């Protein structure tokens, strides 16, 4: 297929016959030409692409992370039966907008989940979502566009926390699509297959997680004040918070301005295991900060290690160097 420009917004499209001659196929807009070449239409993305996009967003909400336009564009061809197609990331804005419109029809007060879809280079949503910001704030059209970028970005980061803390996303999905959501891995949406491959004895016990570790982890979840976090400030909390690195944080707390990753080590952990825990905290802080588009040293992500015995002096020194706070909390003995 050959496209020849005949105007500012139109082209005349030719197809090549078997003998090599060109014949006129159709006159159409540039958008439709490119969609036809790539074997899809924007209308197809709007109608059939929103469900797999929402599944991927649910996965990122669980991991407190964003997703790029490009990631959704690479995921959709397989989901829509377009294995040979290349979907342009610029067309994913239509998917995001349609999805948010559908959500707002049924759940007017739902947070702006479309803000989690971001540009790979900036780590922020495109200007196409600014009208949703204006409507959410009850401000005149153009308010978000005119706002200083630094101030607008602070609002976007705050709205991300609302999305992560919202507890009705499963209900939203069932209402929109008529069935419960699958996990991203079961649905075949994620490309992240690798795991840590930790040996069975990791953490001081064989055969999986010890009862001591489970008990300590649950206690911290229910008593954040024991690690210096006000119960009243906690907006959301969970155990085994998944990260995009493939790691799972033992206990996770989110307040309005700070995310806390807590690694727990029961009394059966060796000194070597406590040391591994410190480095694991460092990894959590860096990965969570990257997921949230923040600086790991600006205080917006804090990692803590909980132990049940006094750590040796060399580990206390290491914790200071790594900027990891150690809390001694006795639960199992």
Describe this structure in words.
The chain is 41% helix and 17% strand. With 333 residues, the chain is of the alpha/beta class. The protein folds into three domains: 1-37, no CATH class; 40-177; 211-328, Trna Endonuclease, Chain: A, domain 1, CATH 3.40.1350.10. The strands form three sheets. A five-stranded mixed sheet has the order 6-7-8-9-10, with helices on both faces. The chain has a three-stranded antiparallel sheet with strand order 1-2-3. Helix 12 (313-322) links the parallel strand 9 and strand 10 (325-328).
Keywords:
17% strand; single chain; 5-stranded mixed sheet; 10 strands; disordered N terminus
What percent of the residues sit in helical stretches (DSSP H or I)? 40-55%
The overall pLDDT, averaged over residues, is: 82
Please tell me what the overall shape is.
elongated
- Structurally, the number of domains stands at 3
The parts where pLDDT drops under 50 for at least 5 residues are 1-37, 191-207
Helix count equals 12
What is the strand content?
15-25%
Using the CA coordinates, give the radius of gyration: 24 Å
DSSP E strands, number: 10
Structural class comes to alpha/beta
Task: Please outline the major beta sheet.
Answer: 5 strands, mixed
Order of helices and strands: EEEHHHEHHEHHHHHEEEHEHE
Distance between the termini: 75 Å
- Please state how the strands of the largest beta sheet are arranged side by side: 6-7-8-9-10
Briefly characterize the structure.
The chain is of the alpha/beta class. Helix content is 41%, strand content 17%.
